[in-house]
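Notebook entry, structure prediction.
Reason for the run: the old model in the group folder had no record of what sequence produced it. Starting over properly, with the input documented here first.
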Amino acid sequence: MLIRGKVRGNSAEVTEFLIPPFSTYGLGFSGFPTHMLPFDLSIIGIAHSHPSGSNAPSTEDLNNFYGKLMIIAAYPYDEWSMGVYNSKAQKVPYEIK
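New structure, fully documented this time:
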């Protein structure tokens, strides 16, 4: 999924999650062609899930990083099993309002 929002300094506000055009998925993967995305400066990152229970980004995740942040939701998919990362794979704090 794409993350739409605003980045101000060291903080970001997520306002929407969008399904990108021409998304594909299968057993153990999902993706989308970045060249098909419209020019939209409000897209600040991507989000996806890890059913394994780990919210740490994989090498594949980091190689396909898009935008300023990446949200990974891990099983059991609650607010405590999410991880938010910057483009350097550093975990960043988040708050759900």
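Summary: The CA atoms of residues 49 and 77 lie 8 Å apart.
The old model has been moved to the deprecated folder.
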